Amino acid sequence: MRYVSTRGEAPPRDFEAVLLAGLAEDGGLFVPETWPELSAAEWRALRGLPYPDLAARIVGLFAGDSLDQATLQGMTRVAYAGFGHAAVAPLVQLDHRTHALELFHGPTLAFKDMAMQLLGQLFDHVLEKRGERVTIVGATSGDTGSAAIEACRDRANVDIVILHPEGRTSEVQRRQMTTVLSPNVRNIAVRGDFDDCQDLVKAMFADAPFRREMRLSAVNSINWARVAAQIPYYAYAALALGAPDRPVAFSVPTGNFGNVLAAWAARRMGLPIERLIVASNRNDILVRFLATNDMTARPVEPSLSPSMDIQVSSNFERLLFELLGRDAAATGAAMRAFRETGRMPVPDAAWRQATALFHGAALDDAGTLEEMRRVHATTGWLPDPHTATATAAARLLLPEDAAIPVVVAATAHPAKFPDAAEQAVGFRPALPPRLADLYEREERYSVLPNRLEEIEAAVRGHARRNAA
Ligand SMILES: *Cc1c(COP(=O)(O)O)cnc(C)c1O
Fold it and tell me: What is the pTM of this model?
């Protein structure tokens, strides 16, 4: 299995190289050179597997010769062993056709653990084999950072530096990062918003000497291995509901487009996924794009669902590449135009193709609280604010008489957002016992301005200190 860049100017790589590199040198994102496809019979044969085994089978298709199946299965079993539910990603039925896929039973209570716990294993394995070290740098609007830190803490061959926008994450999210005091972990609060943090990370990667010196690597959702590790749970849910013999729809709370892109990939691999619903908060660039082919970035506005407070959805580039018939030059040109003008020029035919599958709806904060209240009142199950945008979008966008089941990706445990829960339903959901003392733990992080030189100096200092 080889990977090509969406911008076509980086040489093809194997899974290991793509895992370690994150972003391609030409600024593009790696995608499989050809998509693995399973027949209906092959999908049927995967029904009923325990989650770690299904994950090993699916990720194995993307790893190719880089990893043998037994090694991979060992890793998925370790990665998901610490999850707080025996099914790893259980389906909870909410009404006659709506199901919540609970992706929040990992160490940081959000879906990012599903991929990140496996990524930690993969990094460890590959670096050890090669006798190498890396410095992982990442930007987070909340959940990615803690999931990455949990996956990398105390690993011998990895230093990790995570940038978060100062004051823009929830307190639980910040504490889940800043209370990890392992020597290979450093947290930086940037005076700016999430897009600033993401730009700083991209700029560090674009600084070739710095990138080489630090052996930079990424675990943001631009890393292909993360997308690959998110595909299994879409297959798990679809198979449980009768695929490949019964079609399903998914509704996904979306920020960087990584999670919903994994659902798209599951469809590309042959699962009968009839519709993909993109749910947003007031930062609704993707919903505007789907409605009117207007992808214009606006300033990011804080909302009750901070992990979706994003205006530049990095992973959209992978879908764009497919919509443009894998034309890397056209993809690169569109991405450059977007960066220069703030508006992405998508040809009408490509946009129409996207709207045949993807539908979008956005919810403001008041609507989010109302939806949390409604779902809790009618089902007894409380969605977090991110998930609530997706339960609402599913209801709004699927006609009442649509016979297909719809699976809502439940991306965070409601206890991560206790203030929103209290406003919506009048109580603060309890944290699971393993996190109960989070508010008493010591925090460690530095606050830095939105300036590349200072961030790079901090990264260099961290990596050196650990090397010494
Ligand atoms: C990261 C995150 C999202 C958005 O996922 P993307 O892959 O960025 O689209 C949604 N909900 C929660 C709780 C998250 O942590």
Answer: 0.92
